[in-house]
Structures are given as structure tokens and as C-alpha cells.
């Protein structure tokens, strides 16, 4: 039985798009009959034992706490601690392949251990760390730290035996850096249709409690980061309400921009049409999807959103919801305008309002579009089939192991 060790930033029981993608990968690989475990670094903030099973998945933890002090020295110590933990786990579990996931610190830690034990390693990039830092407000494009992180990322990709990325945007960027296209596979974001592909009926009591009775409901369910463009969505509400007086905006989630968005909504002349729910348990998310007619994703135009595909629009399509999103590169890989969703100009509240108003004005296409979008997810973004993209890469890496390592396996 092939053993795959996934090297991770964090995992369940923490909830994020990162952990849900990890869960989907591990569950699908276990269904293939592979022996799968994960090991997280010091940035995994959930309390718990150094080895635990969560939702049927086996995780190991790097012991200790993140270092403090100078950022470069701190990250170097974190890499060393993570590498030591990976090395220890390899000593008694003996994986056949190491599958490291971004950020690049994980790849650097995994490469140390992989080299020491002659184990092949694939590095999977979900977003470039330097661009993610710009997106969440902790970095600046073009700064010395941005440049250094980009160099580390390129070095890690060159050192890996194989590379996986979640979308064509990231693949194209690596190829432009001189990386051999044959070394890269695309393993796109997907949905576990067995777990998330059966929409639940709308709960009338919840509809009333949220003040949505008789409303045209626009919704956003996710994290409140600046790059998500929720300020533009709130700014679109006056125009949208004038065109569709029954419209309500339902915002589910939280994050760094939450208070600023609440303040913006309070100052809006149509504050009573904007409903903040806050964070909700993951097992209740489907109940909120059921309350929404159109899920809106108004991401701002920047490197991060042009290169990286989000997961949430796919979840909305799987739930049979209509999708409207800004016309940025990451959305264009998922949404065909007028076929599986509606695209509007990013950063333009008037364009957002116009696109949403037009969707509510003509419900005649809704059933066909929802069915088409769901079929797209089932056919091309279903984890049960997406996971097969890794298999030939694993097989090739295993075949390339040194003879003495193959003999000992």
C-alpha cells in the first residue's frame, strides 16, 4: 500500500479553505486505498495532542510554539522545527512519497527531510506566499520581503521532484519563471460531492429569523479579507435596492475587515437591507446557502485574484445556487459568463448592482443555469475524479527512486 505524507501549514479541526481542500484530498486518497497521513507546522494553532485523528484523518503535529523575534530568524527556526518533526515521523512510519503544500516554508522543511531519506517530494502550490501576504494586508508588492519570498518560492519549485498547482494562472506564472511545463500538473479546486453536493431545503424559520421573508437574497459566505471586495458589494446596495426594492444582502463569515464592513453598512442609507450573521459552524453552512438566491464574489483585481481560483463559487454551484463574480482571472477559470454564471467589472459598485438587478429581473434562465453549473462541478471539479491527477505523478516518482531505496521499501 502506497504511503503518502502530506506536509501542511494547518489542518482540521481548524476551519479554512485550506483545511477543507486538505480534507478533500486526504479523504479521496484514502478512498483509493492509499495510506495517508498529514503533519502540520508550528502555525497550526488548534490545541490538541501531538498525534490525533480528526474526521477520520490521521494528523501529526510539530511540537512547540512559533518562534519570536526577527522575522527571518523566526521563520528559519520554524522551518527547522518542522523539518525535525517530519524527519522523526519518517523514521517510524516510512512514507513512499512526501506531498508538501504551500506556503513555501513547508516545502523547505519537507525538502530537508526528503533529501535526507531519499524520498521523492511533490510540492503543491495553492497560492504564492508573497501574493497571499499582499492580499491579506501583511505584505507589499515589490518590497524586499516580497522579492525574497518570490526567490524562495522559485528555488523550492526547482528543487521539488514534481509540482502541482491549483489553477492555470499559477502554472503560467511558473512557466514564465523558466520552470519546465512537464514538471507541473494542475490539480484544481474541487468539491466533495458526497459531502457537499446535496442541497438542503430552505428553513422557513431561519428565513424569518434573518428577516429575509419575501426577499431577493444576495449572499456571500466566506472570509472577510480586503481582496474579496465586500466593500464594493455594500457600496452597490443603494443602486441595487432602488432597482429591486425587495433585495437583501446576507453576509456570513468574519475576518480582518469585518468591523470596517459593519461600519460601512451602518452608514449606508439602506442599512436595513444588509444582514451580518457572523461566523457559523461548518455543519450549518449549507443551511445558509439555502437562504440565498445569488452568491456574489466581488473580488478586487490584483495578482492574487488573477492567478488563484477560489473554492467558494464551486461550493455555491454544487449547492444549486446562482453565481455572480468579478471578471478576474481566477474567476474566469471557473465561470463561463452567461453559461455557468455572471461576470461583472471588478471594483465597480455600479456594475455589480446592474449585473445583480438583471439576474433578478429575468428568472427564466435560472433553472437551466443552475443545472449547467452543477453539471460542470460534477464533471470537472469533483474530488472523486480530480484526485486521479496525482496518481501518475506518484507512480513516476516512485519508479525514479534510487534502487537501494526501492529494495528497502
UniProtKB/TrEMBL annotation:
<protein>
    <submittedName>
        <fullName>Glycosyltransferase, exosortase A system-associated</fullName>
    </submittedName>
</protein>
<dbReference type="InterPro" id="IPR050194">
    <property type="entry name" value="Glycosyltransferase_grp1"/>
</dbReference>
<dbReference type="Pfam" id="PF13579">
    <property type="entry name" value="Glyco_trans_4_4"/>
</dbReference>
<dbReference type="InterPro" id="IPR024004">
    <property type="entry name" value="PEP-CTERM/XrtA_GlycosylTrfase"/>
</dbReference>
<feature type="domain" description="Glycosyltransferase subfamily 4-like N-terminal">
    <location>
        <begin position="17"/>
        <end position="190"/>
    </location>
</feature>
<dbReference type="InterPro" id="IPR028098">
    <property type="entry name" value="Glyco_trans_4-like_N"/>
</dbReference>
<dbReference type="Pfam" id="PF13692">
    <property type="entry name" value="Glyco_trans_1_4"/>
</dbReference>
Amino acid at each position: 500500500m502506497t504511503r503518502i505524507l502530506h506536509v501542511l501549514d494547518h489542518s482540521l479541526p481548524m476551519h479554512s479553505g485550506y483545511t477543507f481542500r486538505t480534507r478533500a484530498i486526504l479523504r479521496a486518497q484514502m478512498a483509493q486505498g492509499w495510506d495517508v497521513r498529514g503533519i502540520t507546522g508550528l502555525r497550526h494553532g488548534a490545541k490538541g495532542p501531538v498525534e490525533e485523528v480528526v474526521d477520520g484523518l490521521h494528523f501529526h503535529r510539530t511540537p512547540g510554539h512559533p518562534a519570536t523575534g526577527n522575522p527571518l530568524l523566526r521563520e528559519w527556526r520554524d522551518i527547522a522545527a518542522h523539518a525535525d518533526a517530519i524527519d522523526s515521523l519518517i523514521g517510524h512510519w516510512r512514507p513512499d512519497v512526501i506531498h508538501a503544500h504551500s506556503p513555501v516554508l513547508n516545502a523547505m522543511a519537507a525538502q530537508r527531510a526528503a533529501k535526507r531519506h531519499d524520498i521523492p517530494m511533490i510540492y503543491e502550490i495553492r497560492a504564492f506566499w508573497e501574493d497571499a501576504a499582499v492580499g491579506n494586508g501583511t505584505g507589499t508588492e515589490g518590497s524586499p520581503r516580497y522579492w525574497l519570498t518570490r526567490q524562495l518560492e522559485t528555488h523550492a519549485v526547482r528543487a521539488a521532484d514534481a509540482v502541482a498547482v491549483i489553477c492555470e494562472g499559477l502554472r503560467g506564472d511558473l512557466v514564465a519563471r523558466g520552470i519546465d511545463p512537464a514538471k507541473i500538473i494542475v490539480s484544481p479546486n474541487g468539491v466533495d460531492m458526497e459531502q457537499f453536493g446535496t442541497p438542503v431545503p430552505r428553513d422557513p424559520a431561519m428565513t424569518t429569523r434573518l428577516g429575509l421573508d419575501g426577499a431577493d437574497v444576495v449572499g456571500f459566505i466566506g472570509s472577510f479579507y480586503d481582496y474579496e471586495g465586500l466593500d464594493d458589494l455594500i457600496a452597490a446596495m443603494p443602486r441595487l435596492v432602488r432597482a429591486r426594492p425587495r433585495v437583501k444582502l446576507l453576509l456570513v463569515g468574519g475576518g480582518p475587515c469585518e468591523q470596517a464592513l459593519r461600519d460601512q453598512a451602518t452608514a449606508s442609507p439602506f442599512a436595513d437591507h444588509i444582514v451580518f450573521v457572523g461566523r457559523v459552524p461548518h455543519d450549518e453552512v449549507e443551511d445558509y446557502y439555502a437562504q440565498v438566491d445569488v452568491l456574489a464574489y466581488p473580488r478586487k483585481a490584483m495578482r492574487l485574484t488573477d492567478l488563484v481560483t477560489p473554492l467558494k463559487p464551486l461550493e455555491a454551484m454544487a449547492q444549486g445556487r446562482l453565481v455572480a463574480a468579478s471578471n478576474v482571472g481566477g474567476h474566469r477559470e471557473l465561470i463561463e459568463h452567461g453559461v455557468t454564471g455572471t461576470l461583472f467589472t471588478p471594483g465597480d459598485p455600479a456594475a455589480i448592482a446592474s449585473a445583480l438587478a438583471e439576474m433578478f429581473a429575468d428568472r427564466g434562465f435560472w433553472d437551466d443555469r443552475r443545472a449547467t453549473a452543477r453539471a460542470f462541478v460534477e464533471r470537472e471539479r469533483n474530488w472523486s475524479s480530480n484526485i486521479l491527477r496525482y496518481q501518475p505523478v506518484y507512480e513516476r516518482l516512485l519508479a525514479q527512486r534510487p534502487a537501494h531505496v526501492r529494495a528497502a521499501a
